[in-house]
Design brief:
It is a single chain. The chain has 193 residues and is mostly helical. It folds into three domains: 48 residues, Arc Repressor Mutant, subunit A (Orthogonal Bundle); 44 residues; 62 residues. The chain has twelve helices and no strands. The C terminus is likely disordered.
């Protein structure tokens, strides 16, 4: 049996408490390019990351401006791509995508415009049906939703996925008559943004 030996001064707490190396303007620019090459980010997210690394906080605005001028940072383009991916790949509804964009620190008007554009031709009923088929593909949905707890669970899942309460209930009524009772009993914040 192997024995674990403690090494003096080598504990997790001491390693995780180290202070990050602060960067000058040139190194901060390189850092910004590096983080944007890894993943697409909003202006707010880049600003937060730069704030944690900047030796001089006054350099941040200049770097953000340079990134925008160079085309590396564009919140409208980011929001449209993000909304399209969330709708097409993950099947999320309008409310969820808007909430996620706000969490990614996209300006509310930019987020709303991108979401409206991406969901302009979307039929929420079809999206809800597709979401239910994908999430409950291993069960017979009409039988599964006859049980009250399963119906409530499906409703909460639809609301969490960003679909409207009314649209969710309309679709669930196709499978279970007791779906009418859901809205009166369950109040979910964030259903109407």
């Amino acid at each position: 049996m192997l024995e674990s030996r403690a090494v003096p001064g080598d504990n997790f707490r001491s390693r995780s408490k180290r202070t990050p190396r602060l960067l000058d303007a040139n190194a901060l620019w390189n850092y910004a390019l590096k983080i944007l090459s890894i993943r697409s980010l909003s202006t707010g997210e880049v600003r937060d990351k730069l704030r944690r690394k900047a030796e001089n906080p006054e350099d941040i605005d200049g770097i953000i401006s340079r990134l925008r001028d160079s085309g590396y940072l564009n919140d409208s383009r980011f929001a449209e791509g993000f909304a399209r991916a969330r709708r097409e790949s993950q099947g999320f509804g309008k409310i969820r995508v808007l909430r996620d964009l706000r969490q990614r620190r996209v300006a509310p008007n930019v987020a709303a415009k991108a979401v409206e554009g991406i969901f302009e031709d979307a039929d929420e009923t079809e999206m809800i049906e597709a979401f239910l088929r994908r999430k409950y593909r291993t069960v017979d949905l009409p039988v599964f939703l006859q049980e009250d707890r399963n119906l409530r669970s499906a409703y909460r899942r639809l609301i969490s996925a960003g679909f409207s309460s009314g649209g969710s209930i309309r679709v669930l009524k196709r499978y279970a008559a007791q779906a009418d009772q859901l809205q009166a009993e369950e109040d979910f914040p964030g259903d109407s943004l």
